[in-house]
Design brief:
Blueprint: E1 4-6, H1 13-16, E2 30-32, H2 40-46, E3 50-54, E4 60-63, E5 66-70, H3 75-91, E6 98-100, H4 110-119
Parallel strand pairs: 3-5
Antiparallel strand pairs: 1-2, 4-5, 4-6
Helix pairs in contact: 3-4
Length: 120
Amino acid sequence: MRNNIKISNFYEDNFISHFKEERNVLDQIYYSENNPSIDVIKIAEKLGFNIKFDFMNESGKIDGKTIHVNSLDAEVRQRFTIAHELGHYLLHSPGNTMFRDANIDRYEDIIDRIREREAK
């Protein structure tokens, strides 16, 4: 692919290692000079996730292999939310249902706050 580069070429091994046995997914996604944004929806889908855009009070949540995204949020916020939820999937126990909000102070449990900071 001319002018296209695998996004895996942009990341160091310590980041790629979080993908574990699914690390080949990063070799299937390309960065294009014509479209410099990383397609987080494509990454999520290749990892087996369904993306659902819903009306909700939070920015998003992960529920098993479904990422729910607030359909009222701006597109850039939606992309961040998807990437953020993928961070939870890769860094923490897959399958946990967790609601996400931009305001980290809404999380009373210290463990939830730590997980939120890690996923950013």
